[in-house]
Amino acid sequence: MILGKHFTVEPSGLLTFAAGVLAPEPDVRRLADALPVLYADVPPSDRPLYYMYRGVCLENDRELYQQHDIRYDITVVLPGTIGKEYIKTVGHFHPLKPHSSETYPEYYEVLDGEAIYLFQKNNRSGDVEEVMAIEAKKGDKVFIPPAYGHVTINPGNKPLVMANLIESHFSSLYGPFQEKRGAAYYYLEGEDSKGDFVRNPRYQNSAALKLVAAPSLTQPVTAVKNKSLYEAFIAEPEAFKILK
Description:
Layout: E1 7-9, E2 15-17, E3 21-22, E4 27-30, H1 31-34, E5 48-53, E6 57-58, H2 62-68, E7 70-77, E8 81-82, E9 85-86, E10 106-112, E11 114-122, E12 128-137, E13 141-144, E14 149-153, E15 160-167, H3 175-179, E16 185-189, E17 195-199, E18 209-213, H4 229-235
Parallel strand pairs: 12-18
Antiparallel strand pairs: 1-2, 3-6, 4-5, 5-7, 7-15, 8-9, 10-13, 10-15, 11-12, 11-14, 16-17
């Protein structure tokens, strides 16, 4: 799925799709939806923060995605801040796979803009055990391994457009982040307009934040090294059975 060919980004952040692309109306996350995970207390409003287009594909590829129970989504996270905090997704964890002790993984790709993917692993009591910030730019792919919750932050001054491949049936778990009012760290605008990570005091454990550049990550599917997620799935759908 190519930005500028299969879809364009409007000034509002909404997407316009070309003929031959199947795409639903977006789910909209607004400021009122994000209140349980924000750094600061702010009044609720209908201000949109990001748009999620679930199940995007070319008409000719729909059957292939359905056969493999894989979904391709596109999300647009708007630029800006809420108070001092950069706009982010509300964040979630994934449930366990059926008859397994492993949670579902997920694959992301930055199509435009820049992202910080905050990975977090919790212990059984719900406190943080490990947390990483993955800095990603256009073309970078980021694999969300089992057992990690994740939040996506837009630290840039333009819309962050990202795609993901995910198993098409499970429901995400939002409670763990909401119970602690967000992830273990917030990303705030500093006095010099550069971002700073600030620890969330609601976590009892003090896990050090690891900063990682996306290109240094190991890719569990080798096909994504020279193809987009969309192209890699169409070429080798069996390679993505790790998502199921």
